[in-house]
Write a structure and sequence with these properties.
Number of strands: 49
Distance between the termini: 93 Å
Structural class: alpha+beta
Oligomer: single chain
Helix content: 10-25%
Radius of gyration: 37 Å
Number of helices: 19
Length: about 950
């Protein structure tokens, strides 16, 4: 059976669209939403509720609908969309949801983007008030942006058949839109929802550009766009949402808002059912009853909760054979799935309830102005007792509300407010009034202002639903207040009312009213729950825009990366960098390859690509003073040509990074950071410079990508370097440890630093990135006779761990001080101050049972301890809770030691050296001996060459 009217509606009846819902094929027309097409085909039940599994239908016609959640399956799977906002297209495949959907398993092929727009006046909402505001501001010469979530302007006029200036309202709307679009400096954005309002006139809006095209969406065009609008003045003509009345069984499919039924009729040419009961507390629902009756729906009864029905409207109903029963309410419903009958009773019970059979119930409990954006703009709200809703309660200097968003529900008055708001906004933005915009004259016969505020009909509280999406009932609200909750924010979280996709558009005000009644307080004294962005659901893909994949998290590679790829390196991600992990030969696994690389480096020579280390150029008269404050040790005394290791701490005295400082000139330093912390440390430096020490003459510049850095490591490194840098004296006497020299390496200008992170004789060769591969290959050729071996980050970790050198983020976890790492020597006792110094005096930082860095040697030298393993004191686990002494931070097999070893943070670790502790590994307790953290070449003879 079809419920499509023979004529009418803003749909293209000459074209049919095929779509599939829950496996059944239906047809609709361009201009339909999925909801209107389903109703036209007699489908009311869309899904089921999230907790109770009760059937759910279509309650509203727009974004305020709390129930019609669907999952789009084709052309791309997307969950949690409202059938009322999904525009129909050919080939659409969807299914109803039980309150929650399923994310797609494959990446979204669509594109998303963002765009910035600046304007003098932003108007949100293209109903009568918004159109008048936009046109008035545009005629003043102001730059105007008009946004509206619908696919066409008109607002509430889209759902009525009223006339303005003695012609169809659609013609009046079309004329204004045409003038706006032809006016220079005016941008009209349809299918665009302003979902967030922030400080300084910053508004975020989402435009759905190709969603309605489905399979026909052109490639290369962004599906959705986030508009980042900066405006001087804003007019909020956001309208109002009709709210229901809560009664027993009010969640059955077929029960919908009266104005939404009118919208389905006039906008889509769809009848909501065959026989309807209208339940109202105000005049507006009478127009829905009259219009539907004239279109062929049998209006069984208009139930008006007010003691007296409006005489003129009651007369019009009588002329159409519609009975009006004042002083009555709907007390319950019947039906297996869709509603089949309602029970009618007097508001003040005096007689038995009457059952009226129907397949549709249209409800109107009043109107809630949409004040979300006004509230987000920090505007105060006040409770309007006559309206039964919160409205804007103050004037803001840059934000104005107009139309039904203020609680004004008369169309003529809304238009006047819009015109005035547009003029005021343009004037405040610095523009003189332009041509006067005439006010339209409406023939509207219904208003909603003179209504009765009725939140609920007494009855079965467990079956009276406040939030249909959350399955939250009156009983839940009363349970919350009975538990002692008073704040609406607390009750919202206790009951989950207003936390679903619709953010309480139809349930929030009702819940507040029921709470006030239960507590015996006035709503004027209750603060409404906070309106937070986004106003409607926004996909993460839209928020990300083009910041996805490599554009979100760029893959960074060094200048030498092609060589690593060509020679079979496997890579690991360090920050955003792809670093060679190890270089396996045929048949080698990780451990075999790393043992080979370690052995070759310790016994002869190896080299690695260290270009990813953060490098920051620090210049200025106060550079030394600045670095003295950043590092725990003294930097300003470093001589030009020298290098010093340094540790940085946070204000709490905990280690945040380490690296070397090279003094390049009297007022210039080059510092290095760990790979993953480069950006963080530069930001840290700038924060202190710009906020705490702006008087210092210091400039910091990242130069990480400028340099290719090659650590050349091992006993034969001196021989290899001498072969490619003949002009450089590499003897111990001429080239001391922790010094640097500028020279020429393989014909390329280079800076060579004698630094070691391996404990071996080592040099770091720095050349411009352009020459990285050439110098790398020259070093490989020069070292061939010594069996030079490239090694990756895993071997680097083993070599440094054998020497007890910590890695920030592995041996530290934001609770570790330099003293815990055994680095008291790196903390100056002479400097009057540095970041973190004061915290070293805290009692917490001087506890004797702090976790300290130590080495661990498993009693069984073949056992490899899993990193992260906990450490206990006894060889038998006691009953929980078990006291943990610490954890393993690094663990490796060692070619140099001929066994496995580990580093760990252990309570009072420095006092436990020589003790036996235990590490739970699967079902066993592995005994380990606590040692000093330095396990190889403690004297440093190999490093010194």
């Amino acid at each position: 059976m079809t419920f499509r009217t023979p004529t009418g509606g803003a749909i293209d009846r000459d074209m049919s669209l095929r779509f599939t819902f829950n496996g059944q094929t239906y047809t609709g027309h361009p201009g339909d939403t999925l909801a209107s097409a389903l109703l036209a085909n007699g489908v009311h039940e869309v899904g089921s509720s999230v907790k109770l599994g009760r059937p759910r239908g279509i309650v509203a016609a727009g974004s305020e609908d709390p129930t019609s959640l669907v999952q789009i399956e084709a052309p791309f799977s997307e969950p949690m969309l409202l059938a009322t906002t999904v525009e129909l297209y050919d080939g659409l495949v969807a299914r109803g949801l039980a309150g929650q959907g399923k994310l797609a398993a494959e990446p979204d092929p669509a594109r998303y983007d963002a765009k910035h727009e600046h304007c003098d006046v932003l108007v949100v909402g293209a109903g009568p008030a918004g159109l008048m505001a936009a046109l008035t501001a545009a005629r003043s010469g102001a730059r105007v942006v008009l946004v509206d979530e619908q696919n066409q302007a008109g607002g509430a006029l889209l759902g009525v058949d009223e006339y303005l200036d003695e012609r169809p309202s659609a013609e009046w709307v079309a004329d204004i839109v045409a003038e706006l679009k032809s006016t220079p400096g005016v941008l009209v954005l349809e299918r665009t929802t302003a979902f967030g309002m922030y400080q300084d006139g910053f508004v975020l809006a989402l435009q759905k550009r190709t969603d309605h095209l489905g399979f026909a969406a052109p490639e290369g065009v962004a599906r959705q766009r986030v508009w980042r609008i900066r405006t001087r003045q804003t007019v909020l003509a956001t309208g109002a949402h009709e709210r229901p009345v809560v009664f027993a069984g009010n969640d059955r499919p077929g029960i919908m808002l009266a104005s939404s039924a009118r919208t389905f009729l006039h906008r889509y040419g769809v009848l909501p059912g065959s026989r309807a009961v209208v339940f109202t507390t105000n005049d507006s629902a009478y127009c829905a009853a009259i219009d539907l009756a004239e279109s062929g729906v049998d209006i069984a009864l208009v139930v008006d909760a007010r003691q007296e029905a409006p005489a003129r409207l009651a007369t019009e109903c009588a002329a159409r054979g519609i009975e009006v029963r004042a002083g009555h309410v709907v007390v319950g419903t019947e039906g297996d799935g869709r509603v089949t009958a309602v029970r009618i009773g007097a508001l003040a019970p005096a007689s038995p309830d009457v059952t009226v059979h129907c397949d549709t119930v249209l409800v109107s409990g009043g109107w809630n102005p949409v004040v979300s954006l006004f509230s987000q703009a920090r505007g105060k709200l006040r409770y309007d007792a006559e309206l039964g809703a919160f409205v804007p309660g103050e004037e803001l200097s840059t934000v104005r509300a107009a139309g039904s968003a203020t609680g004004e529900l008369d169309l003529n008055a809304c238009a006047r407010q819009g015109r005035d708001a547009g003029a005021e906004a343009a004037t405040a933005a610095g523009f003189a009034p332009g041509g006067q915009v005439p006010l339209p004259v409406s023939d509207s016969r219904c208003t909603a202002r003179s209504g009765l505020v009725l939140w609920r009909v007494p009855g079965d509280d467990d079956a009276s639903f406040v939030d249909l999406q959350r399955d939250s009932t009156v009983a839940d609200v009363l349970r919350a207040t009975g538990a002692g909750l008073r704040s609406l924010e607390h009750i919202k979280r206790y009951t989950t009312i207003g936390t679903a996709h619709d953010q309480g558009k139809t349930s929030g005000m009702i819940a507040a009213g029921i709470v006030a009644e239960a507590l015996g307080v006035e709503l004027e004294d209750q603060r409404p729950t906070t309106f937070r962005p986004p106003y409607t659901s926004i996909s993460f893909a839209a928020l990300a825009g083009r910041d996805r994949g490599e554009l979100h998290d760029p893959v960074r590679v060094t200048a030498i990366h092609p060589w690593h790829v060509a020679h079979g390196a496997l890579f690991e991600d360090v920050g955003q960098w792809k670093r060679p992990w190890y270089y396996p030969k045929p048949g080698e696994d990780l451990h075999t390859a790393v043992l080979r690389e370690c052995r070759a480096t310790r016994e002869s020579v190896g080299m690695m690509d260290g270009s990813t280390l953060g490098k920051i150029d620090v210049q200025g008269r106060d550079a030394g003073k600045f670095l003295d404050m950043l590092y725990t040790n003294m930097i300003s005394t470093l001589k030009v040509g020298k290098i010093r290791y340094g540790v940085m701490c946070g204000v709490d005295g905990m280690v945040i990074d380490d690296g070397t400082v090279i003094r390049v000139g009297e007022e210039r330093y080059l510092i290095t950071t760990t790979t993953g912390n480069a950006a963080k440390i530069l930001d840290w430096m700038e924060e202190w410079l710009q906020t705490e020490w702006p008087h210092l003459d210091v400039h910091c510049t990242s130069v990480t990508e400028h340099w290719a850095t090659i650590p050349l490591v091992g006993p034969r490194s001196r021989d290899v370097l001498a072969a490619v840098a003949p002009a450089l004296d590499v003897s111990n006497e001429a080239f001391e440890f922790m010094t640097w020299h500028d020279t020429v390496v393989a014909g390329v200008p280079a800076r060579v630093c004698r630094i070691s992170f391996s404990g071996e004789l080592a040099y770091e060769i720095n050349v411009t990135a352009w020459h990285g591969i050439a110098v790398w290959e020259a070093l490989m050729a020069a070292g061939e006779q010594y069996g030079i071996t490239p090694y990756g980050t895993e071997t680097m970790h083993v070599l440094r761990a054998e020497k007890g050198y910590p890695i920030i983020g592995q041996e530290t976890d934001a609770t570790v001080t330099p003293q815990d790492l055994g680095m008291s020597w790196a903390v100056s006792k002479k400097k009057p101050d540095f970041i973190g110094k004061r915290s070293f005096a805290r009692a917490e930082n001087n506890r004797t049972d702090r976790k300290q860095l130590v080495g661990l040697l498993p009693v069984d030298p073949s056992v490899l301890l899993p990193e992260g393993s906990q450490i206990v004191e006894t060889d038998r686990l006691p009953e929980p809770p078990v006291r943990m002494l610490g954890h393993v931070t690094s663990s490796y097999p060692s070619a140099a030691l001929g066994r496995t070893f580990a580093l760990a943070l252990v309570r009072s670790g420095h006092e436990r050296i020589g003790e036996t502790l235990y590490v739970p590994v699967e079902d066993a307790l592995v005994p380990v001996t606590v040692t000093e953290s330095v396990l190889y070449d403690k004297e440093g003879a190999r490093r010194d060459g």
